[in-house]
């Protein structure tokens, strides 16, 4: 795992050793199994590799230690304060859409305006994933007036997520599912001349609306889900 993450970050053993303030020989011995790391060493290497908290837990377990970062469910008591803060943001952003997303871009919570934007007039599925809504044929994909641009940006966002969290992460699974959809081949995040932010052009019920988004995250997270959550807010463009 250490070798895989070092490769993912484009670091040599010497690069990692210098970043973690350990000897290159020790890094080599850890990768070959000739030496066993302490939990402190695992966390030091994970920090040097800029690994997210979920993946740091995985590295600890692989080295024979217990996870050190919580992994709470969105509806668990541990997330009460975060849900309350997110709810305030969603309510305060009305009448414009806002939603809470996890690392795989699953919709954990959304205000009424967001649910109306994502629905087709016949109801909204209980389990929503932003990528699936954009890439899989359906009312949301059909309503996006600049689909190539939005899908290209979203593909770029997913690739960044995979680079951060690894190809076997949940966002990696979602990206591979998106790549199997029609039109997904060759998408790029093409810049649009003269535009500061890429707008989402949405045609709903014969009415065209244009939006840009801001993304909010929580500071100093010590829990896996708390680190992964983002709040996406739509603003009229």
SSE layout and pairing:
Elements: H1 2-8, H2 13-20, H3 24-32, H4 39-48, H5 53-62, H6 80-93, E1 98-101, E2 107-110, H7 112-118, H8 130-135, H9 139-143, H10 147-165, H11 170-179, E3 200-204, E4 207-217, H12 224-228, E5 230-236
Antiparallel strand pairs: 1-2, 1-5, 3-4, 4-5
Short description:
With 237 residues, the chain is α+β, with helices and mostly antiparallel strands. Helices cover 46% and strands 13% of the residues.
3D structure, described in words:
The protein is globular and about 65 Å long. Helices cover 46% and strands 13% of the residues. The protein starts with a helix and ends with a strand. Helix 2 packs across helix 3 (24-32), helix 2 (13-20) crosses helix 4 and helix 4 runs antiparallel to helix 5. It has helices at 2-8, 13-20, 24-32, 39-48, 53-62, 80-93, 112-118, 130-135, 139-143, 147-165, 170-179, 224-228, and strands at 98-101, 107-110, 200-204, 207-217, 230-236. With 237 residues, it is an alpha+beta fold.
What brief labels describe this structure?
12 helices, alpha+beta, single chain, 237 residues, five-stranded antiparallel sheet
Q: Count all strands and give the number.
A: 5
Please give the alpha-carbon distance between the first and last residues. 44 Å
* Strand percentage: 5-15%
Low-confidence stretches: 120-124
- Provide the helix percentage: 40-55%
Could you say which overall geometry the principal axes of the C-alpha atoms support? globular
Quaternary arrangement of the chains shown?
A: single chain
Strand line-up of the largest beta sheet: 2-1-5-4-3
The main pleated sheet reads as:
5 strands, antiparallel
Overall pLDDT level: 93
Can you count the helices?
A: 12
